Structure formats: C-alpha cells, structure tokens
Automatic annotation (TrEMBL):
Domain DUF7660: 12-84
Annotated organism of origin: Priestia megaterium
Protein name as catalogued: DUF7660 domain-containing protein
InterPro entries given in the database record: DUF7660
Name of a matching Pfam family: DUF7660
Amino acid sequence: MELNEKVGSVKNREDLIRFIFHLRTDLQNNREKRGNVTLDDYLKAMEVWISEMDGFYLNSNQPIPNQPSWKTIADILYVSSMYE
C-alpha cells in the first residue's frame, strides 16, 4: 500500500503511529522524492499547507475539519513532506 493510500486508512492513534513509521521509512529510503527533508523546510511547508488546507478538502470532496482528527494529523504530516 502506498503512503497516499495509508493516509486514508488512519482512524485512530495506533493507525497514526503506524503511518508515521511508514512516512519516516519512506523519507529515509526516498529522500529525493520528498522536497522537505530538513526540519525547517518541513515545518514551513506544514505552516503553509495548514493555512491553505480548506482548498484541498473542498477539491477532494471531503468535509473541512473543524476539529483535527487522527486522519487530519496524518494528512498534515504527509502533505508537509512534499508541499512547496
């Protein structure tokens, strides 16, 4: 299962822990695919994406979260690894 598919399966804390393991493993094995490999770049991308994430949810026909869920946290972590 690809990382983008794993994001959709995050429903609880244990799922998020597993997802973070896979995200970290992917980063270690595929640094060239991830644009944000430094902590500064990653946090900067996270900041920007969180401020713009309503558009992502609208464009993908998902409800805009009022309260972050475990899946929302996984979305933020995943997208921040490549968002510019």
